[in-house]
Structure formats: structure tokens, C-alpha cells
Write a structure and sequence with these properties.
Distance between the termini: 13 Å
CATH architecture of the largest domain: 3-Layer(aba) Sandwich
Number of domains: 2
Order of helices and strands: EHHHHEHEHEHEHEEE
CATH superfamily of the largest domain: HAD superfamily/HAD-like
Number of strands: 8
Strand order of the largest sheet: 3-2-1-4-5-6
Strand content: 5-15%
CATH class of the largest domain: Alpha Beta
CATH topology of the largest domain: Rossmann fold
Length: 246
């Protein structure tokens, strides 16, 4: 099916229940740098991404990452730490995540992933919950430290991959206020994801965002009611929560 709309998907907290595991691995990798001062309030950093946090922490400590080898070493350490935790604990999808990706593949929505995690760790997460992806539509902080640049690059990549010269609609799906803010800056539609007790969900709703705790609920908003998926037919009335892709 010809694609003419773009669905930009965050990963942590949106598709995979991996935030705490990722933060544990990130903390270990950052502490291993031996910095004199380390701010562990990751949300307070100018760029809430792995590489954005890494670069800013080095700069705050007067350390210059003069070689790409320094960043590569950090990414290897972070990936190794996450792989160990993943092997020990396993990983669950956010309910409905895989179904949403499968559903979108059967429609005019072209899916692209934009994540603040590094590429190698992001691959592990998607594979762990059996979400199929192509490398070319995975945009990570290994390529862009800024969340705005990440999402902007993801949209541009989707336009190239799916041969969309003028998208009829572009919608971002994420779990954080930064996702909502970037979507607003770029003029994209936005849908939030998160459990009912999540602090970020309350913050997103306070900003007027529609938020789903189960992505199965979002499926009728991006596919027609009679699309066949593993497990049966998806039902639900047409809605405008996600930007229309007529």
C-alpha cells in the first residue's frame, strides 16, 4: 500500500517498558567515566538523550571528547550493561505496541522510530519485544543528540524511505513532555502513552494531550475497522485523535 502519512514512534515507555532498566544501565556507564561532578537528574539536561547527557556531563567537568573513540567507548559500555540487565530480567512491551506497528504497516501510515537511546541498545529493545524494524527507519541518539533533531531527521527519513514528497499527516507517539514539546515545535500531531499512575501522563493531559495506557486503544485511530491482524479483527469507530490519513 502506498504510504502518504508518517507515524513517528518513541521507544522507551512508548513501545517497551524499559525506562528503569535503561536508566540503571546509563547510570553505571556515566559513573564509569569517573567524572568529579555528575548530575544524575537526567531530565534536567538540555538534551534528554544518551549522547546529549554524555556530552553535557563531560563539558560540565571540563573534559573534552576530542576523539570519536571516547563516545564509542561510552556506547559500548552502555550497551554491555543494558545487555546484562536484559538477559537477567527480560523486557515487556507496552501493551499493544507490537499490534500498533503491525496495524500501521497495513495502512497508508509509514512507521519510523525516533529514540533518545543509542542505536545498539534500541535494537535490543525492539528485538526483545519482537517488533520488526528496518535499520533505515531507526533514528537514535547515536546520530543526533537533540530530541528535536532526532524527530526532524526521522520525518525526513520516512519521507525518503516511503517516497512521500508531501505527507498528508505526521503524528508523533511518545510518553514524555519533551515528546509533546518537540511535536509542537515541529507542527506534528501528538498522542501520549503511559499508565494511569504515571506522573508524565498527568503532565501530558494537563497540556491537553490525548493519552492511552494501552496502545490497542490507539489502533482504531490509525487503521480502518476491518483490518485483519493476528488474533482477530480490530473494531472501533473512526476518530481524529491521530491526524487523519484519508
Amino acid at each position: 500500500m502506498k504510504k502518504d502519512c508518517i507515524l513517528v514512534l518513541d521507544i522507551d515507555g512508548t513501545l517497551t517498558d524499559s525506562i528503569s532498566m535503561h536508566q540503571e544501565a546509563l547510570l553505571g556507564a556515566m559513573q564509569a567515566l569517573g567524572l568529579t561532578r555528575l548530575n544524575t537528574d537526567w531530565g534536567s539536561y538540555p538534551h534528554h538523550t544518551d549522547t546529549g547527557i554524555f556530552a553535557h556531563a563531560l563539558a560540565e567537568n571540563g573534559v573534552e571528547a576530542s576523539s570519536s573513540d571516547v563516545a564509542a567507548s561510552f556506547e559500548r559500555d552502555l550497551d554491555n550493561r543494558f545487555a546484562i540487565l536484559l538477559a537477567e530480567r527480560g523486557l515487556r512491551e507496552v501493551p499493544g505496541a507490537r499490534a500498533l506497528v503491525l496495524a500501521a504497516a497495513q495502512t497508508r501510515w509509514g512507521v519510523v522510530f525516533a529514540t533518545g537511546g543509542i542505536r545498539s541498545v534500541s535494537r535490543r529493545k525492539l528485538r526483545a519485544v519482537k517488533i520488526d524494524f528496518a535499520e533505515e527507519v531507526l533514528i537514535s541518539s547515536s546520530e543526533h543528540a537533540s530530541r528535536r533533531n532526532l524527530v526532524e531527521a526521522a520525518v525526513n527519513r520516512a519521507m525518503q524511505v516511503y517516497d512521500i514528497s508531501n505527507p498528508r499527516a505526521v503524528t508523533s507517539v511518545g510518553d514524555g513532555l519533551w515528546d509533546l514539546r518537540v511535536a509542537g515545535e515541529l507542527g506534528l500531531g501528538f498522542v501520549g502513552v503511559g499508565g494511569p499512575d504515571s506522573r508524565s501522563v498527568h503532565a501530558l493531559r494537563a497540556q491537553g494531550a490525548t493519552v492511552f495506557s494501552d496502545l490497542h486503544e490507539a489502533i482504531p485511530h490509525v487503521i480502518s475497522p476491518d483490518i485483519q491482524l493476528p488474533g482477530g479483527t480490530v473494531s472501533g469507530a473512526t476518530s481524529t485523535v491521530l491526524a487523519s490519513c484519508p
